[in-house]
Amino acid sequence: MDFKQRAVEMLHETYGAEANFREGQLEAILAVVNKQKTLVIQKTGWGKSIVYFIATKLLRENGSGPAVIISPLLALMHNQIDAAAKLGLDVVTINSNNRDEWDDIYARLSAVDAIIVSPEKLSDARFIEALSQVNDIELIVVDEAHSISDWGHDFRPDYQRIVNLVKDLPDSIAILGTTATANDRVIEDIKSQLGNLQVFRGDLIRSNISIQVNPAQSKAERLAFLAASLTEHPFLNKEQGIIYCLTKKECVSVAQFLIEQGTSAAPYYSGMQNEFGEDTSVATLEAFHNGEVRVIVATVKLGMGYDKSNIGFVVHFQLPQNLISYYQQIGRAGRNGKPALAMLLHGDEDEAIINSFIESANKDPKLLSEILTLISQHPEGMSRNDILPHFNMNVTKLGSVLKYLFVHEYILMDKRKYVINPDKHFDAEMNAQLQQQLNVTRLQELDNLKQFINYDGCYMKYIADELDAPDKQEKCGICAHCRNREFITMDTNHPMISIASQYKNKLHGEISPRKRWSNNKKIDESLQFKTGWTYTTDAYSPVGRKFMYERDINQFSEQTTTQISQFLKDMIQEHHIDAVVAVPSLRRPHLTNKLAQAVAEYNNIEYIDAIVKIKPGNKQSEMHNSIMQERNIEETIAIQNEDLLKDKNILLIDDTVNSRWTMTIIASKLLAHAKVVYPFALVNTGSGE
């Protein structure tokens, strides 16, 4: 077969006789079908999927089996299936959202043209067994290949499974990696793991995305800027767009404010559920994709590879984690070639959040060694929940550490329990050196980001330089600095600022009851508190900062006690609350009880000194998993004046709420005597990440 001629024919059959390959596309296709290991680094929207789908079709017509495409996101999988259908390819995906179809898919696996799976699927015994029965696989595609590298901006341990898979493949199988974000260091690391690669690297400057970076603003100022821009600016008020936030909580807050100001918006993040516990993220993304929602407010969950051609703008409400992530995310805009806008907003709190992400990503070699030692002492194996009580870390962090050990094959899975791999030695010293280098790199990336927001030259050129792009010496000509003007501004006396300030100062939240104890047993409904309230969900808002300052000096002001007493008046009346109880503290012995007494007096109900601290405990904020948080409260408090609690509707007051374990334990003890308990805290300090 003349692969070159047939590739051109396929392009014309699909996209019309006038269609032409972009520079580098045909060359990359030919490298793949000639079984060269290939890495394609091209800007978002360039058409990397065209390379692997036409290569797939060429190989299939030449008698090969289906291609295996490894992709990190469900959203990306759906985009790819749609793109492949245009070329007449029968492409299937096996993921958590189509379990009902698995049997049918597995039954016809050998007959399809391509299989799209996540890297996690490479550890699924059923999938690996099914794949081993498929003959003549000649192409493995690794989408978002920068995720293989420890130095990539979005390194994922699951991608190590790909490295393990590739090592065992014969030379007759082509390997294609694609990404938009790999600098020289990442390229060399990918080569070291996948073998020598032919690299097709294109220019990365996006000539249709105009970047504007605002000066540091408060959250209220940023909300006002967004709401005003989306309703008043002649370009933004008719375009669909994405707003990125660092945390889930911020996504909800921003989306809610925009909705209140008349903009169609929806939050989007991992773990979205409706009241029935059903995942709502797919429906939300489809509503945005179909134009039913104009603005989607997302975490990085909506990141790599999401392909919607008519996104007109991308706004960062907070700093991205690094510049390469930023380039990846703004690349969602303008994929149809039309002018698009990228605006970077930021505030003083962003750096602390990013530093916490860097810290949580750290795999401390000492900790890894301790976990391996613990597991080695249990030949029968240990589950994650067996391991958790031994370490003061949250379940997400432990899950990340165990995944790291598992995909690097230091531990294996046997009957759903982790066991030591006797054939793999853990080199603590080598891992320590790697972690130290990674931390230095991540902190340097943060410094580069801080320099970027204060840069006075071409923004796109700065990013291209960070990516070692071939066109890093060029200027985009369309960013705010190149044009010497801000594209969107807002007067300091704009009325939306006052509206946003009121919203942030009164961003009341709810405290929902925990349903299970830390051992995963159900909490009896009779021992659960009712849904309660927080005055603010934002410790960084002006009112949140005020509350936290007064908390730190152990004295709530008269203004605060009156403010809280008035706020709770309607709740107290509506729920027939007839007594107030304070959460005690040895560190701040008079703080919450004085507030609780003031609330009781203002609302003419009883204050009961019902909870006593029987011994010092650790700071609850320093306990990082549910087992330790539950134990830390359970062992340090006791009930008194039980007779006064009988049949009471109680308001349980604390200064802050985070994990909800303090409220959960105390409420369960109160409910042995009281009728109902409604919790209240001034500030929710949980990050909602």
Description:
Its EC number is 5.6.2.4. Residues 229-376 form the Helicase C-terminal domain. One of its GO terms (biological process) is DNA repair. With 689 residues, the chain is α/β, with parallel strands linked by helices. The protein folds into four domains: 3-201, Rossmann fold (3-Layer(aba) Sandwich), CATH 3.40.50.300; 209-352 and 463-494, Rossmann fold (3-Layer(aba) Sandwich); 355-434, Winged helix-like DNA-binding domain superfamily/Winged helix DNA-binding domain (Arc Repressor Mutant, subunit A, Orthogonal Bundle), CATH 1.10.10.10; 506-684, Rossmann fold. Helices cover 40% and strands 15% of the residues. A seven-stranded parallel β-sheet has the order 3-4-2-5-6-1-7, covered by helices on one side. A six-stranded parallel β-sheet has the order 8-13-12-9-11-10. The longest helix has 26 residues, at 428-453. The radius of gyration is 28 Å and the shape is globular. The two termini are 52 Å apart. The model has no long low-confidence stretch (mean pLDDT 90).
